[in-house]
C-alpha cells in the first residue's frame, strides 16, 4: 500500500470518536467478531504506549469489525492485567459488544491523539493479524491492509491501548456515510 492507498484511508485514520459507530452507519448490520480475549505477555509497542514495566501480562482482545458481513477492520486492545480488576473491569464482560460502549459513554475516559502507522509487511503484528484473518474470514489478509491507527485511553490512571488495522474495502468510503 503506497501513498495513494494511505491517502484514500486518511479520513478513517484520522476520524475522531467511535470507529464502531462510524462503521455501523455504512450498512444495515454491524458486528463484532471476537477472535480472542485473554492474558498475553506484553508486546514492546504496547508496553511503551501504556508506560508498563519490561515484564508482565496484558489482557488482550482481538476482533474483526464487519458491516453487512464484510470484514473491514482487525483490531487489538491491550490493558495491564491489574487494570481489569479496577478501572477496566467491564472489559471482561464485553463479549461481542463494541469496545465503544465502554470508551465513549464515560466522561472520565480520555483518549490520546490518533497515531497512524504503517505496519511492516513481515512484522509480528501483521503476521498475527494475517493468521487470525485467514482463520476467521477464510481468505488471506489483503496485501494492501497495512495502515493502522493507535490510541491510548486513560481512566483513573489506568491505560488501554487500541490498534485498528483497516481493510482496503474502506478506501474511498467517507467515515460514517452510507455506501453507495
UniProtKB/TrEMBL annotation:
The entry's keywords: Cytoplasm, Lyase, Pyruvate, Ubiquinone biosynthesis
Family (UniProt): Belongs to the UbiC family.
Organism, scientific name: Roseateles saccharophilus (Pseudomonas saccharophila)
Localization of this protein: Cytoplasm
Entry annotated with the keyword Ribosomal protein: no
Upper taxonomic lineage: Bacteria, Pseudomonadati, Pseudomonadota, Betaproteobacteria, Burkholderiales
InterPro entries (alphabetical): Chorismate--pyruvate_lyase, Chorismate_lyase_/UTRA_dom_sf
Function: Removes the pyruvyl group from chorismate, with concomitant aromatization of the ring, to provide 4-hydroxybenzoate (4HB) for the ubiquinone pathway.
GO MF terms held by the record: chorismate lyase activity
Chain positions recorded as substrate binding sites: 61, 99, 164
HAMAP family in UniProt: UbiC
Protein's GO biological process: pyruvate biosynthetic process; ubiquinone biosynthetic process
Keyword Nucleotide-binding: no
Domain of life, source organism: Bacteria
Any one Pfam family match given in the protein's UniProt record, by short name: Chor_lyase
Pathway connected to this protein: Cofactor biosynthesis; ubiquinone biosynthesis
Reaction equation(s) it catalyzes: chorismate = 4-hydroxybenzoate + pyruvate
Main localization (coarse): cytoplasm
Protein name listed in UniProt: Probable chorismate pyruvate-lyase
EC category name: lyase
EC number annotated for this UniProt entry: 4.1.3.40
